[in-house]
Design a protein that fits this description.
single chain; alpha+beta; five-stranded mixed β-sheet; 29% helix; binds adenosine-5'-triphosphate; binds magnesium ion; proline-tRNA ligase activity; cytoplasm; nucleotide-binding; Proline--tRNA ligase; catalytic activity, acting on a protein
Length: 564
């Protein structure tokens, strides 16, 4: 490619709203442009990196036995009503209607579409089946930010697996887990797999998130150096199974009680209770040791989408599972208030309290606002459930000392079980002719977010430094003076030669000053730069490695052999 015609204008300054390094550099180096909040065009350079990422993902998905398909973004609202996610998904769901006033959504994920499609598979012999796609997702994020990190329209690889039993799902899940490890390694990321929380997607089993380690990550993860325990802090909070006792939840002065019938989304709750976004409560459901816990934790000062989503997740579980209906019923009547401490309740007791007629938030269909821990419930028992703290002993091995890291969620895998297959009729006849719902898993990778995460981890402030596997071009030839015939001829010959050899090469043939070319090249971050300047007269070029910053004057032939 000749840079004189490349659709990529470099910018000296990033727009003020670009706060993170990846966002600034991707804009400045001409990889992306914003069209509207959270909506981006991938310019040719950005598109090339995406294609590299996609190719790696495809290879690893294919190798893991997954089949590629492509599902529509426009999905009938009806399908989402069937899965009971239409309301519960909340405002993140983009809705639209056609000329006949039929309602549609723009898919934020594809469990509904794929599960309804699987209805056509009727025999257990056909399973297991895993499918995947790479495509556009739509989520009306409350706060699109950090460029590609949190888009409202973004690229995702999503995969869905269908097995006849849980053992099968365990196999598929671990195959996907390993494929994810290879993908992120090949992308050159520093990452970690952590225990996660099921959130809005619900599900009945294990779930892991893959976190790119980065100071700008929105998730905090607790890591034990002595064993392999690592968990998203939301999950780390609920790992202990100590006794927590609810007490005296009631009409204390200041704790206002609100009638809020039925299951509702966090958006509705916020409206009804007039809770400011930064006062959102988090709700988790944790099933373990034969018990079900409802865990309510105050949100951060920052609006945390994860936490909002957890609340919705609880509502969803309530619809799916009778044991947790009680938990969620309690959650529905739980505490909401501008208090800074985690609030935790053991659900068995809470439900008992509820049914024995204790008033206040212990009553179904009521919420409390302005609850004060210690006044409205016993604090001493809450400690066992509090958020894990840095420096604490690991809850799993009891040896290591937990430390915290920030992470960017780049991938997420779930054991879903029958949550969707039951609602949407994906079942097979087993060997005895009995109908059994398929056992599902789902597996996402944020393709466009991954691009941003790689950029965030690979730069030196001056510009991007692409890992070879993802770079838009392998070699950047800088022709120092387009007026100089010898230099021009040498650069053109080198360009042709490399292109012939199948090397992806970008030739800076612009009529620009050398300084500008160097600056832009550093900004763009192509792994190898070959400078064709005065030394071309002696058949020599300057060979520069972007990552190590090394420079060497070598013969043109030697330069060619180093990149082939
Ligand atoms: P987050 O916690 O960041 O909101 P999520 O848990 O809602 O993400 P999933 O539903 O697990 O996301 O989707 C699978 C993957 O898609 C995520 O792991 C992430 O890499 C990516 N992803 C999710 N939301 C966005 C977004 N708004 N922009 C870009 N990538 C996203
Ligand atoms: Mg989200
Ligand atoms: Mg998440
Ligand atoms: Mg997730």
């Amino acid at each position: 490619m000749r840079q004189s015609h490349l659709l990529a204008t470099t910018l000296r300054e990033a727009p003020a709203e670009a706060e993170t390094v990846n966002h600034q550099l991707l804009l400045r180096a001409g990889y992306i442009r914003q069209l509207a909040a959270g909506i981006y065009t991938y310019l040719p350079l950005g598109r090339r990196v995406l294609r590299k990422i996609e190719a790696i993902v495809r290879e690893e998905m294919d190798a893991a036995g997954a089949q590629e398909l492509l599902m529509p973004s426009m999905q009938p609202a009806e399908l989402w009503k069937e899965s009971e996610r239409y309301e519960v998904y909340g405002k993140e769901l983009m809705k639209l209607s056609d000329r006949h006033d039929r309602e549609f959504v723009l898919g934020p994920t594809h469990e509904e579409v794929i599960t309804s499609l699987m209805g056509e598979v009727s025999s257990y012999r056909k399973l297991p089946i895993t499918v995947y796609q790479i495509g556009t997702k739509f989520r009306d994020e409350r706060r699109p930010r950090s460029g590609l990190m949190r888009g409202r329209e973004f690229l995702m690889k999503d995969a869905y697996s269908f097995d006849t039993g849980w053992e099968g799902l365990d196999d598929t899940y671990s195959r996907m887990y390993k494929a994810y490890q290879r993908i992120f390694e090949r992308c050159g990321l520093v990452y970690r797999a952590v225990h996660a929380d099921a959130g809005a997607i619900g599900g009945q089993g294990e779930t892991h998130e893959f976190m790119a380690i980065s100071g700008i990550g929105e998730d905090t993860i607790a890591v034990c150096p002595a064993c392999d325990y690592a968990a998203n802090l939301e999950q780390a909070e609920v790992h202990t199974e100590a006794e927590a006792v609810q007490r005296n939840v009631s009409n204390q002065p200041g704790a206002e009680k609100f009638h809020t019938p039925g299951l509702r989304t966090i958006d509705q709750l916020e409206q009804e209770l007039q809770i400011a976004p930064d006062q959102v409560m988090k709700t988790l459901i944790y099933q373990g040791g034969g018990k079900t816990f409802a865990v309510l934790v105050r949100g951060d000062h920052e609006v945390n989408e994860v936490k909002v989503r957890n609340y919705i997740g609880a509502s969803e579980i309530a619809l799916a599972d009778s044991e947790t209906v009680q938990a969620a019923a309690f959650v529905e009547s739980g505490y909401v208030g501008p208090v800074g401490l985690p609030v935790t309740l053991l659900v068995d007791r809470a439900v008992a309290a509820m049914t024995s007629g204790i008033t206040g938030a212990g009553e179904r269909d009521f919420h409390l606002r302005d609850v004060v821990p210690g006044r409205d419930f016993a604090l001493e028992h809450v400690a066992d459930f509090r958020t894990a703290e840095e420096g604490e002993t690991c809850p799993v091995c009891g040896k290591g000392v937990l430390h915290f890291q920030q992470g960017i969620e780049i991938g997420h895998i779930f054991k879903l079980g029958t949550k969707y297959s039951e609602k949407l009729g994906a079942s097979v006849l087993d060997a005895n002719g009995r109908s059994k719902p398929m056992i599902m898993g789902c597996y996402g990778i944020g393709i466009s977010r991954l691009l941003a995460a790689v950029a965030e981890q690979n730069n030196d402030g001056q510009g991007l430094i692409w890992p070879a596997a993802l770079a838009p071009y392998r070699v950047h030839i800088l022709l120092m003076s387009v007026q100089d015939e010898v230099q021009t001829a040498a650069a053109e010959a080198l360009y042709e030669q490399l292109a012939q050899l199948g090397i992806e090469v970008l030739l800076d043939d612009r009529d620009e000053r050398a300084g500008v070319k160097f600056k832009d090249s550093i900004l763009m971050g192509i792994p190898v730069t070959i400078v064709v300047g005065k030394a071309a007269a002696e058949g020599k070029v300057e060979f520069m490695d972007r990552r190590s910053n090394s420079k060497e004057v070598i013969d043109i032939a030697e330069a060619v052999s180093r990149v082939t």
